[in-house]
Known about the structure:
The structure holds two protein chains of two kinds.
Chain A: E1 8-10, H1 17-20, E2 36-38, H2 42-51, E3 64-66, H3 75-84, E4 88-93, H4 100-111, E5 119-123, H5 127-134, E6 158-166, E7 173-180, H6 184-188, H7 200-204, E8 207-212, H8 214-217, H9 223-239, E9 248-253, H10 256-261, H11 265-283, E10 289-294, H12 310-317, H13 337-344, H14 347-350
Parallel strand pairs in A: 4-7, 4-8, 8-9, 9-10
Antiparallel strand pairs in A: 1-2, 5-6, 6-7
Chain B: H1 8-21, E1 28-32, H2 38-48, E2 62-70, E3 76-83, H3 86-95, E4 97-99, H4 100-105, E5 112-117, H5 127-130, H6 156-166, E6 177-184, H7 196-203, H8 205-212, E7 218-226, H9 236-241, H10 245-248, E8 250-252, H11 263-268
Parallel strand pairs in B: 5-6, 6-7
Antiparallel strand pairs in B: 1-2, 2-3, 7-8
Amino acid sequence: xxxxxxxxxxxxxxxxxxxxxxxxxxxxxxxxxxxxxxxxxxxxxxxxxxxxxxxxxxxxxxxxxxxxxxxxxxxxxxxxxxxxxxxxxxxxxxxxxxxxxxxxxxxxxxxxxxxxxxxxxxxxxxxxxxxxxxxxxxxxxxxxxxxxxxxxxxxxxxxxxxxxxxxxxxxxxxxxxxxxxxxxxxxxxxxxxxxxxxxxxxxxxxxxxxxxxxxxxxxxxxxxxxxxxxxxxxxxxxxxxxxxxxxxxxxxxxxxxxxxxxxxxxxxxxxxxxxxxxxxxxxxxxxxxxxxxxxxxxxxxxxxxxxxxxxxxxxxxxxxxxxxxxxxxxxxxxxxxxxxxxxxxxxxxxx
Amino acid sequence: xxxxxxxxxxxxxxxxxxxxxxxxxxxxxxxxxxxxxxxxxxxxxxxxxxxxxxxxxxxxxxxxxxxxxxxxxxxxxxxxxxxxxxxxxxxxxxxxxxxxxxxxxxxxxxxxxxxxxxxxxxxxxxxxxxxxxxxxxxxxxxxxxxxxxxxxxxxxxxxxxxxxxxxxxxxxxxxxxxxxxxxxxxxxxxxxxxxxxxxxxxxxxxxxxxxxxxxxxxxxxxxxxxxxxxxxxxxxxxxxxxxxxxxxxxxxxxxxxxxxxxxxxxxxxxxx
Lengths: 351, 272
């Protein structure tokens, strides 16, 4: 049956594929869109039941068991995961096209090749999600130049997972969960703080990584907007109370290869330095840590090694001090005699 | 376990001959024939003629039971091989489901024979790998042959890791498993000093580190195996056909005699 003969439906309410036959996000063929599903053809089912055309020897769905999808983890799957083992949450915030997905996928790509900065692969629940994001940077994709697929707003929040072992130290396993969502909601939080509580990855974070788009820094007309968007995002997060003096924030300049190759590079360097000094002056006292990093995930010229700067970041993310934040519960007020019995009971004996 | 053309059926054919022919010394030998052995006989006959052993399709999946005797201890036991086709493993990865029978097999005693073909194409190559050979002068140019992602583009080592990872979560029982990694077509390896485990670390590092970093889940050994003994598609075929069939077989690995491909089975079953 041709693709055009099949009825489709989409979980994105803004997509009219059922009526128009065209994906709102431009996926072609339609089956490549993660939100689109074929509509079960009831007429065909009835016909097959009546005529007995279903082969009785065929294996039924009951003969099979579903296996994990390998896609990005949803919030509820993350909660299940945390019951099994602790993890470090790295929340990556950046405007659209700032390189959020490319950064994480370049790290995965390095691990495919063996040890990376003394870390090696121990497991991942999201291999399919990694592979989808890495596809267009591979020769097999048929592309002439590498690309990272744009994350759709409709995908919502997901998490990439990496289990690693660090050689040398105590060789213990470390699990990292990287938030993954489209840049548009992050674009909006500067002007509307009410959006922030709808982004659970921010309060859940052990580390907030704010991306400064190096591609915009080399554009003289856009560089001021680029740094101000990072500054205002940080201010919005602090003023909303989403992050505080217990928070670790990293400002990561992406696409360093572009910054390094531009004429008048020293001026951009000065510009970045001034921006960093201002941030330290204005926000550092309100945070536990504020640090600055530079990466080049994928330098097409080959001047910088793939995943340049990510090794040091990985070491930072996996420092033993960082642990998944446990919820802090305030003690309930004990009023009744029965409650007071709890206070009088030595817990050691009770346990 | 193994993807298509990884050497599963050829190994089984060579094993079928080796344990029954008595041509060379092996630790395990055939104790008795039982049941229907037509499939094993047909692939073994093709192997003896130095022909390509017919690959197992999903439709022709056959469970094979071989009654063996350990010549050192005289202990007898039955080896069950669910001769799964490579396509069924491919489908398991792409459709994210598996047969209930497959799950039940993993609840029994025994281990996993994981097949990888040494005569393989490099996969997962990125644009950065080819720089500066790749022409990147027009960075905005897109190719008309651009293809959307599908599971077929996932590198072999990633697929094998995910197949092993399936065993760590329900519906499978999470427990320590023995894995004998068999590098088939070992005859294509020109370096006589290269150990199979070093080949695995060099060629499939993602899989290698996954196994190394999960010792509480996978106890693994790597063997280099040449079930055919050489390239049967070219001039070497006649030369191979003149040899004693069992002597065509090569096995490199821990405690393995040169022609004894029962060594991985012995290790897998924890026989001392």
